[in-house]
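Researcher: Next sequence.
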Amino acid sequence: MPGALGLGDRRLYLCTPDRPDLATFVESCITGGVDVVQLREKLLDARPLLERARVVRRVCHDHGVPFVLNDRPDLALECEADGVHVGQDDAPPALARRLLGADAIVGLSTHAPTELDAAASEPIDYLSVGPVNETPTKPGRPGTGLGYVEHATARSVRPWFVTGGVTPETVPALVAAGARRFVVVRWLTEADDPARAARRLRDAIDAAVDQA
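Model: Next structure:
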């Protein structure tokens, strides 16, 4: 596991696209309780993506929060991100590990029991599990349902974060199925007050996990 900026007991993972107020948005979310941040931007070319990644990295490091870049281990290396998150069709985790080194955070998306089970042999630090509910951020991908969360609870040998429709209202059922770490997108990216929305979600997570 990575060192000072590793995953530890972190519970609330923001995945955000680029946006005009990127720095202030990320800082507001961290103030509200986000403790891992991923920049996931599919539309920018390498150089502008690198510039925006550096913006997020500065904010995250000012607050002691790990910063992970989506898809691009080469750009993660260049911007000195704490790690990279890859999908099933992206750069292999082994390549990301070779590029970024033993102390980097490497995460992998999984959407089915076979993918989660296969990940046991990959050089990764964490998995994402889902999306439990169908979500516009993953168009065309059906929701996995709570059964997949229960499978991850029983079988995963790595820390994992549940994805897909995480809100204060859905957290109790996810925790009952075994989830302890959560990825959030729209609850924060669409919020009028990101700090307040993050605090409400973090309070719901902490209450449910601490009582489980």
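Model: The longest helix spans residues 194-211. The two ends are 25 Å apart (CA to CA).
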